[in-house]
Amino acid sequence: MVIDPRQHGSNRKVSSLINMLRRARHDVLVMADSDACVGPDYLTTVTTPLLDRKVGLVTCIYHGEPTPQIWSRLGAMYVNEWYMPSVLLARLFGHEGYASGQTICVRRGPCKASGV
Fold it and tell me: Judging by beta carbons within 10 Å of its beta carbon (0-12, 13-18, 19+), is residue 105 exposed, middle or buried?
C-alpha cells in the first residue's frame, strides 16, 4: 500500500497510479479496479500480449454485473449498453490509442514500435 497525498492533475485515479509507480518493483504493471471479478487465468491472459515488444499497453473490454439496487442496475446498463459498444465502435473505426479503466497493463520499459 502506498499513501501519498500529492495530486498530479485533476484525475485522482491517475494521480494515485503516478504516486505508486515509483514504488513498483516489477517491469510489468497491472492495474485493475477493485470491483473486477476475474478468472484464475486473468493475469496470464492480460500480460501475455506484452511479450511482443511492439505492444506497450493492454486493456480489456468488460461488462457490468448489477446488484438488485437501482443505481447498480443503471450503472451496469450504462456500461453494457452505451460505453462498451462505443469502445468497440471506436476500435472498429481504427482508434486504438486509449485504454479502458477496468484493466490496464503496461511494461515499464520503452515500446519498440513507437520508441516511447
Answer: buried
